[in-house]
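Entry 12.
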Amino acid sequence: MDPSSALNGVTPIGPPRTVEIEDRYLDTAGRAMAGAGFVARVRTGTGPSRLTLKSMARRGTGAVHRRLEIEADAAEGDDPSRWPPSPARDRVLEIVRGEPLLTLASIRQRRLQRDVALGASVIELSLDDVTVGGDTWTELECELRSGLEADLAALGASLLRRDDLAPATTSKLDRALRASGVAFTKR
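Predicted 3D structure (tokens):
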């Protein structure tokens, strides 16, 4: 199914694309990343591995959420001292202070993505088939690529009115950790 079909006012930009990705969420045994209010994710799939350092603090109301995210290239393995220098890598090194990173959860996703125009904005729609161990689910994400947050909010409000969709009540990471039996809370 095309994630942009049947959305009023949304104009597809280019063809849909399918990508296969794996996200590994990393922290120390003592949960230094969580204690500092961050999550470290290394994504592999098409192209080089990417590190995303995400703030656990989310701001926003309704379907629109904002949080700090810093992205950079990551090398193979979980030793941040071997990753290419970047502000994201440097922040991870500062937080973990030499403790090794461990994989807390691994999430595989098959994503059907499509960029769409809405108002003055370009929004990426991702329909994700998510797998963690034996647990699977489907999730729709909308990410503002350029333009106005008001357009993203309007799309979110439109999606919330649909009877066949329900807002996620937890993050993919929280769900993956629950499926893996790992406790993950900010200290």
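Annotation: Helices lie at 32-35, 87-96, 149-160, 172-180. Strands lie at 11-27, 38-44, 50-55, 69-73, 102-118, 121-132, 135-146.
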